[in-house]
Design goal:
- The chain is an alpha/beta fold.
- It is about 40% helix and about 15% strand.
- The radius of gyration is 21 Å and the shape is globular.
- The protein starts with 10 loop residues before the first strand and ends in a 14-residue tail after the last helix.
Length: about 325
C-alpha cells in the first residue's frame, strides 16, 4: 500500500498497543489491506513486556507510513490514545484496537459517508476464539447525546473515523479525562453538534477475550417479567448506594458540556439533564423524571419509544440509570 498523495483527503490511523503480540499481526494486516490509501499509521506502545514492540518495528521497516512510538512510562488507555491522536497530521483520524479485524472497505466507506459531518461510526460485531461469552445486539444504536451521558460503549473507539477539526472543539480535559473514556469524550463532543453519521454495516470484527481491557461478560437482558423485577430492584439498591458517585460524575460532565462551543438544542438538553441528575433536590429528581418521559425516544432505542412500559421506564430512568455506574458498587453485582 502507498501513502495517500492528497493531504486534503488523508487518513491517519491510530493504534495504541499493550502486550498485544497474540493478535496484533492479524489486525495490522487487515489495516494494510484497506482499499483506501493510508496517509500514516501511528502505533504507540504503552510499555509492553512482550514482543509487541518488535512486531511493530518489523512492519515499520517495510512500510514507511507506519510510525512507531514507545512511551517511557505507562500512560494508561486515555492518556495514551489522546497523546497518540495528537501526533496525527491527516485530515481524518481513525482509531484501531490492537486485537480486532477490519473489513477491507472500512475506511473507504467511512470517507464516502462522512460528508460534512464531524464523525462517522460503523457497526462492529464481537467474536470469540477462546470461549469468552459474547452477545450480538443487532439493533441500530441510539447515538443521541442524552443516551451517551449514561451509556458507555455506544460508539467504541474502533468504530470511529472523525475530522481532525473535532479535536479543536474539545474542552480542556484535565479535570474530566479521569471520568470518561477517550472514545466517549470524542463521541459526546461530536454529538453535542448533532454531527454523527452512522453506517449500519459490520465493518469491524471485535475480538472478545478475557484479557481485553474492555471485556465484560454479557448480562441477561431478556425482556421477561422476572428480569424486569430483578433489575428494577437491584437498580434501586444501586441508586441508594451510588447517588453520591452519580452526582459527582454528572457535576464534572456538566462542566465539560458547558465548555463545548456548540449552541445546539441537543447540547442544551444534555446540560439541563446533567444539572438535574447532579442535584440533591427531590424537586429536581421529579423534574428529571418528567424530562426523561418527554425525551424517552432519545434515551432508549427508537423502536422502544412507544407504549406504557416505555413511559414507565422513562419515569424510573433517573434511578434505573444507576446500573450504568455499577462498576463503582461494593455491594451489588449484576
Amino acid at each position: 500500500m502507498n501513502e495517500c498523495p492528497n493531504l486534503q483527503e488523508s487518513v491517519s490511523i491510530i493504534m495504541c498497543t499493550y502486550n498485544g503480540e497474540k493478535y496484533l499481526r492479524a489486525q495490522i494486516e487487515s489495516i494494510l489491506a484497506q482499499t483506501y490509501p493510508i496517509h500514516e499509521f501511528i502505533i504507540q506502545d504503552d510499555c509492553s513486556s512482550d514482543n509487541t514492540p518488535a512486531i511493530v518495528k518489523e512492519y515499520a521497516g517495510h512500510y514507511p507510513f507506519i510510525h512507531f512510538f514507545s512511551n517511557s512510562t505507562n500512560k494508561g488507555v486515555n492518556e495514551n490514545f489522546f497523546s497518540a491522536i495528537a501526533r496525527a497530521s491527516g485530515k481524518y483520524i481513525a482509531i484501531a484496537d490492537q486485537d480486532d479485524i477490519w473489513e477491507p472497505d472500512k475506511i473507504a466507506l467511512q470517507i464516502k459517508h462522512i460528508g460534512t459531518h464531524l464523525m462517522c461510526a460503523v457497526r462492529s460485531e464481537p467474536f470469540s476464539e477462546d470461549g469468552s461469552p459474547i452477545r450480538i445486539d443487532k439493533r441500530e444504536p441510539n447515538c443521541h447525546l442524552l443516551r451517551m451521558l449514561y451509556v458507555g460503549g455506544i460508539l467504541p473507539g474502533h468504530c470511529l473515523l472523525f475530522r481532525r477539526t473535532l479535536l479543536d472543539k474539545l474542552p480542556d480535559l484535565s479535570d474530566f479525562i479521569v471520568y470518561r473514556c477517550y472514545d466517549i469524550i470524542l463521541s459526546m463532543t461530536a454529538a453535542a453538534f448533532n454531527d454523527i453519521v452512522y453506517i449500519n454495516k459490520t465493518l469491524v470484527h471485535q475480538r472478545r477475550h478475557g484479557h481485553a481491557a474492555t471485556y465484560t461478560p454479557p448480562s441477561d437482558n431478556r425482556k421477561t417479567l422476572s428480569n424486569f423485577i430483578r433489575q428494577g430492584w437491584l437498580s434501586f439498591q444501586l441508586y441508594r448506594e451510588l447517588k453520591p458517585v452519580m452526582r459527582e460524575r454528572f457535576k464534572h460532565t456538566l462542566q465539560f458540556l458547558r465548555a463545548i462551543p456548540s449552541s445546539s438544542q441537543d447540547l442544551q438538553d444534555a446540560i439541563h439533564m446533567c444539572r438535574l441528575q447532579s442535584s440533591a433536590s427531590p424537586a429536581d429528581m421529579l423534574r428529571l423524571s418528567f424530562f426523561c418521559l418527554k425525551h424517552k425516544n432519545k434515551l432508549f432505542y427508537s423502536k422502544e419509544g412507544k407504549g406504557l412500559i416505555t413511559s414507565l421506564r422513562a419515569i424510573y430512568f433517573p434511578i434505573s440509570a444507576a446500573v450504568y455506574f455499577r462498576m463503582f458498587s461494593r455491594k451489588y453485582k449484576f
